[in-house]
Amino acid sequence: MTIVFVHGVPEDMHVWDDLRAELPDVATVALSLPGFGVSRPENFAATKEQYLEWLIVELERLSGPIDLVGHDWGGILTSRLAVTHRHLVRSFVTDVIGFFDPTFAWHPLAKLWATPGAGETIMADQAKKSADQRTVQYTSMGVALPYAQHLAVTDGVRDQCILDLYRSSKELHADWGAGVETIAKPGLFLLGTKDPFADPKRSQPRAEQLGLEVALLADLGHFWPSQGPKLAAETLRTFWSRLG
């Protein structure tokens, strides 16, 4: 059994470091999305479709069985893969299923990133802040200090990938979520109760409609892999233990 972790935006593979340390007896792999802490391949357009294709290739390279865990955009890719390429994994865990709902709408920052001009302005303004200011910004959202300092390092390649990704995803529900009423199991929807980007009161019922197990991480926010690695690891172990 191999556990494969897929991070989100604006993170890289190291968002999983503390959580993986809580699983010393399990074989784990943390992937880095192209352009996020690693190089952006030539001619890679950083669209949602290309990131999904990349994830499929990465999973096909690994020996199974694979238990896939996705966070933020990694969660979106995981949820989509659970629909289109379910045979690649034994189980999956995601913290994003909102785009399966017809009422889905992106949060305000995502809408700005998706808007040419506005997105570039936001990235430029962020880059003008000091590393300490950016670190405080991340720690205020629950990111552990060492990783917050890591994220605070400016990265123009990452920033452009973020803009390109969101601009390919303006109609995420129509493209990837429409018509999805069930997902092959076993799957777990995992969410911090204080995640500002996903209201558990809306997302939990949708997860249950899709037939997923649900686990809410008490008092954790959006960056739960960094904020509460011990609780997250315990919750994941409980889910995997039921798979045999």
Structural account:
- The structure is a single chain.
- The protein is α/β, with parallel strands linked by helices.
- 45% of the residues lie in helices and 12% in strands.
- It has helices at 17-21, 48-61, 73-84, 108-113, 118-128, 131-139, 145-151, 156-167, 172-177, 200-209, 224-227, 229-241, and strands at residues 2-6, 27-31, 66-70, 91-94, 187-192, 213-217.
- Helix 6 crosses helix 7.
- The radius of gyration is 17 Å and the shape is globular.
- H/E series: EHEHEHEHHHHHHEHEHH
Strand order of the largest sheet: 2-1-3-4-5-6
The CATH class designation is Alpha Beta
Q: Which architecture name does CATH use?
A: 3-Layer(aba) Sandwich
Looking at the chains present, what oligomeric state does this protein adopt? single chain
Count the E strands.
6
Number of domains: 1
CATH topology: Rossmann fold
Backbone structural class: alpha/beta
User: Count of helical segments?
Assistant: 12
Largest sheet: 6 strands, parallel
The value of Rg in angstroms is: 17 Å
Determine the fraction of residues in helical runs and give it as a percent range. Answer: 40-55%
- Could you name the ranges where pLDDT drops below 50 across 5 or more consecutive residues? none
Strand content: 5-15%
| Overall geometric form | globular
- Taking the alpha carbons of the first and last residues, their distance comes to 11 Å
Kindly report the average pLDDT value.
96
CATH superfamily: Alpha/Beta hydrolase fold, catalytic domain
What's the short version?
This protein is an alpha/beta fold and 244 residues long.
